[in-house]
């Protein structure tokens, strides 16, 4: 007859009830990954396959595309999902390869600051982009601007 010994006491405390951020991070990675595949292939199709292809992508193409709020929001969605997806992945790597303490806090803090800075700057670029700024010299404006 085989006797099975009692299990040892776990070294970690039992998980707390309430909000499980790791679970929601895991769910976000899966959902954002699927959505990013759709958004990025749509982005590539419109930019590379429709119209004249890659040779048509220039300042005017981007200016014309971002004149439409639909494409502004499409590109913002890609920016936000991709940056947060990537930052969450790097956060997981930091958790896996560093032990809790000062270094881990510094790395996660730097990751948070850089992610927020890139999100703010990218969002400002998309929503404040004006290919024909008022008061600019005509020789510096693209040919499609009314003052040029």
Describe what this molecule looks like in 3D.
The protein has 148 residues and is an all-alpha fold. It has a single domain, classed as Up-down Bundle (3 helical TM bundles of succinate and fumarate reductases). It has four helices and no strands. Helix 1 packs across helix 3 and helix 3 packs antiparallel against helix 4 (102-128). The longest helix is centred in the first third of the chain and has 29 residues, at 21-49. It is elongated and about 90 Å long. It starts with 20 loop residues before the first helix and ends in a 20-residue tail after the last helix. The chain crosses the membrane at residues 27-50, 70-94, 106-129. It holds the Pfam family Sdh_cyt. It is found in: Membrane.
Count of separate structural domains:
1
Beta-strand percent range: under 5%
Q: State the secondary-structure class.
A: mainly alpha
Distance between the termini: 94 Å
> What level of helicity do the residues show?
55-70%
**How many strands, which pairing sense, and closed or not: the largest β-sheet?**
none
Count of discrete alpha- or pi-helical segments spanning 4 or more residues: 4
Task: Tell me the CATH superfamily.
Answer: Fumarate reductase/succinate dehydrogenase, transmembrane subunit
| Main CATH class | Mainly Alpha
- CA radius of gyration is 24 Å
Rounded mean pLDDT score: 87
Number of beta strands = 0
CATH fold topology: 3 helical TM bundles of succinate and fumarate reductases
From N to C, what is the helix and strand string? HHHH
CATH architecture: Up-down Bundle
Poorly predicted tracts of residues: none
Question: Looking at the structure, what is the overall shape?
Answer: elongated
């Amino acid at each position: 007859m085989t006797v099975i010994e009692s299990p040892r006491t776990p070294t970690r405390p039992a998980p707390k009830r309430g909000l499980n951020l790791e679970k929601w991070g895991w769910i976000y990675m899966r959902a954002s990954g699927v959505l990013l595949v759709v958004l990025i292939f749509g982005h590539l199709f419109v930019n590379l396959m429709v119209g004249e292809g890659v040779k048509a992508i220039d300042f005017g193409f981007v200016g014309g595309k971002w004149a439409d709020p639909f494409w502004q929001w499409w590109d913002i969605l890609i920016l936000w999902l991709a940056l947060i997806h990537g930052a969450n992945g790097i956060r997981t790597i930091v958790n896996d390869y560093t032990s809790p303490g000062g270094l881990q806090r510094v790395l996660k803090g730097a990751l948070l600051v850089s992610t927020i800075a890139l999100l703010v700057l990218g969002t400002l670029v998309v929503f404040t982009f004006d290919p024909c700024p008022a008061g600019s010299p005509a020789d510096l404006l693209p040919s499609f601007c009314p003052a040029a």
